[in-house]
């Protein structure tokens, strides 16, 4: 909003409607690092979202496999959308993920995730020239154009399951995986390795939801009140 206001005031001065540089008077908005708390889908709601997929249908098998990749491996929506058949190494049991800035990483392929992908590939995936793993359910048969389609799949699953989540996109499943690992005793370094964070500071935001560790740092309330 402040950027748009400054642009408008500069334009007004350029037109001659203003004589003073009012754009310089628009204050900056503070953007504190790590100021928010991750919006994660609670662990008990993830099975409900997965169960909402009609796995007796082609689209249901596809959506189920996509949701498992998000929930079990913490993939980003764009990484699921651009996953190709060549990224799946069934012999070694690994999956190659093309992340940000063109970086590729190999992750272990969990048994349930592999079975879900195989079920879609063997019984449902349309025949197409595209090498993308997940294809559109309607013509023209091709891969998804952007990560927004994956987010829409998540939004639909939450609606079917009757889940009123703080966010509707796919990233909350990634946050949910990190929070669950933290509760199970994983270190921030291990979480950052799975989520493929370049900087430890990116993973540091999850320290805010480690209530057990934060409890040891909290001072007693004056007067001994609980």
Describe this structure in words.
The structure is a single chain. This protein is 43% helix and 5% strand. The chain is mostly helical. It has a three-stranded antiparallel beta sheet with strand order 1-2-3, with no helix packed on it. A hairpin with a 4-residue loop joins strand 1 and strand 2. The model has no long low-confidence stretch (mean pLDDT 87).
The number of strands is 3
Rg over CA atoms, rounded to whole Å, is: 22 Å
Mean pLDDT: 87
Terminal Cα separation, in Å?
42 Å
Question: Could you provide a short overview of the structure?
Answer:
By secondary structure, this protein is mostly helical. The protein has helices at 2-15, 46-51, 58-73, 77-81, 111-122, 148-161, 171-183, 188-195, 200-203, 211-215, and strands at 88-89, 94-98, 104-108. A hairpin with a 4-residue loop joins strand 1 (88-89) and strand 2 (94-98).
Helix and strand arrangement:
Blueprint: H1 2-15, H2 46-51, H3 58-73, H4 77-81, E1 88-89, E2 94-98, E3 104-108, H5 111-122, H6 148-161, H7 171-183, H8 188-195, H9 200-203, H10 211-215
Antiparallel strand pairs: 1-2, 2-3
Helix pairs in contact: 3-5, 3-7
